[in-house]
Fold these 3 entries.
Entry 1:
Amino acid sequence: MSITTDNSKSPTVRQEFVAVDALIILYIVLDAIAQSLPPHYSPISQAESLLAVGPYGYVMTVNFLNRGVFSLLFLYAFVQLLTMSGENWRNYKFGLYAIAIWGVAALLLAGFPATGSTLGIHTIIAIIIFIATPLGELSLSLKLSRVKALAGVRKAALAIAVLGVLFMVFYLGVLTFLPHFKSDYSGLFERFLIGSIIAWMGIMSTYVLGHVNSLLRPEQKGAAAS
């Protein structure tokens, strides 16, 4: 039985990944702006979420929304990419669900700032995504060799995903037993963890932009042409 794949979606998928890259750049810019505004929280010792608290907290709140949008857009585009390459997305569901949780959680964090009565909810959400997302990205990275068009990015994606898991273990585990070190450097390692998660999406998205046209396997191209 011949497998036919609709490659007409390639331009749309490319546009979606372009948007992902653009929003990631916007995230970095807004994060830097929020960091530069009063009350000048320390990026070394204090959590990124505190940037959403204070007179200019709305900048980081908007950035949480931005993070949710580009993460969910990445997820949507990635599922389309898998379908175009003849893959069943359900074989990647752990990693995809983890990214979905990360994206939805970012939207929720915008409504539950890390202060007052919402601090507990904010903390629970943060712990869940900081555990699930690095593991999800690692799971996806280990399976990239199944998709011919993504095999070339597997090593880089896997390296970033492994770093993300190590940052997660250190941030949520090791630092717990180093209270003085944690008080001085927890913000830095949280940013390393967040940065690795977003960097993984960024490198995947950027790589795909140059390889969308090669998504069809040779046998699928022949079947589609016939």
Entry 2:
Amino acid sequence: MKSNSRLFPYLFALIAVTIWGFSFVWEDYLIKNNIEIFTFIFERMFLSTVILWTVGLIAGSIQKIQKGDMKWMFLLGFGEPFIYFLGENFGIKYTSGVMAAVIIATIPLFCTFIDRFLYKYKLSFQKVLGCLLSLLGIIFFMMEKGGMGSSQLKGILLLFIFAVGGALIYGYTTKEMCKKYSPFTIVTYQFTFGALLFLPLFLLFGIKGLTPQYFTMDVQSKILALALLCSCVCFGLWAYCTGKLGVTRANIFSALIPLVSAGAAYFLYPGQESFNYLKLIGIILTISGVIIVQVVKDVKTSA
């Protein structure tokens, strides 16, 4: 029984990052086909909220939120999906789905530095080396076609500031909320607040995106997959994994997302993403750096 309790968090984390790997490709496809970002993000949030509340009310799976905890649930929704999805999708618009996946994979590196200040963990030589390898990997990835333009720089900054920042807010808040609430309850409130936060942006900028092309099966099938699989299923699994493994240990699996995204983009949507040896080296270095940072045991500094 004890072995199973250790197996499931790792298995669920692997499933989540595999599906999330496809999400970057689906979002990239929608954006490259001129689907308005605020339109499909709001539909994704709305569908996720409806599905979660429907299932939760029928199954009786939604717990009552204790007094004082609603602000933390709001913070979850603000960090991820709101801030995170703004950074991710606009980052993809100015770069690519695989580039976004590579940057998202560096989240554990930021956790390492945050843990240094929160929990007084030492920054060992191995952890510093891992961070430098991942940074070098991102540089290699950006060197495609001889350099980085202003548009790509804008996308990278959006990904680092909003997507990574939102994920960190979500990760550390989820760890605390998992001590009181089930993953299903957390995800339900998370996406409810996410939908409410995206509603004004949809009304201001997204309504114009309700074109005939938007309602085609090709577009709607990808939005449904993003809502059902990537939002409802994956975030529920990730909340469970974060509660069981901790933010830093769970995020080691995020290193696999660029591999899934790269493979899906190359084999399922030929021409959507170009690859050369610099990109491949960049992905390998980034993943290697993240893994090194994660596998090195944390040691607390002496008081």
Entry 3:
Amino acid sequence: MEGRVLIIEDHQGNRELLKKQIEEVGIEVYEAENGEDGIQAAVRSMPQVVLISTSLPDMPGFKVVEKLRSIKRTQHEFLMMLGDEDNRQERLSGLDIGANDFIASPFDPDLVALRVRNAINRANQESTTDPTTGLPAGRLVQDQLRALLRDPEGKWCLFRFRILHVGPFRDGYGFLAGQELLRGAARIMAEALGDTDTQMDFLGYLGNDDFMVIIGQDRAEAFEAEVRRQFDNENGSHYSFFDREKGYIEVEGEEYPLASLRVLRVTPEDGPFYDIRSLSEAIAG
């Protein structure tokens, strides 16, 4: 199955045990040894599930939960805490601050892997995350658009990034290669947003090879330039040497351009916007 999990745990043995078990069910695993690195990894790697030890060397686990719930890009992630069964306060603090689940130590790695798999399946079935990119989708994207409508004089900038010519690429290189191209684009955007202290940034997936980003107007130009630069730098890696040299691919006798970016941008000055439909149409192009 598709999916990504982040394990924030300073105990190497626990990390390795969980990683092995979760990878056996086909889920990609990222690791962090402390809270600060874990928060950065959660923003940049876009996991659907984050496992968080309650006892980390730099901060309590519930503080990690609190931070992830305050950042728009990570609010949708399923947060599962791992802690001492006898420490009732740890459990209460974590769940009260926004954790979705708590598993007591010593834990059964098979049970953890099962809960992780179920959490990812549930998010995919409810269309709250996109299974390929791991990004917020569906209702979560709509919620962000509604928030913009409530801020008609704000200093926000709404982007729509469309990856062009993905269809022929999938036909020529295969479905899995197409998924990897989209995941790469999502990673580029997440890394370009970068700073976790900018809590109001949002990155989501609209479907049909389209991404949505909300960012402050003061950072919009630099952000777009960085996404374009990184996409151009990495795009060729998805193609064979011969196709890169030609600058196009051939599928069933037809020539198609290599994948490229189409960027549309909307600010409150382009309005007024009265509903989600009018805002969506403005970035539809």
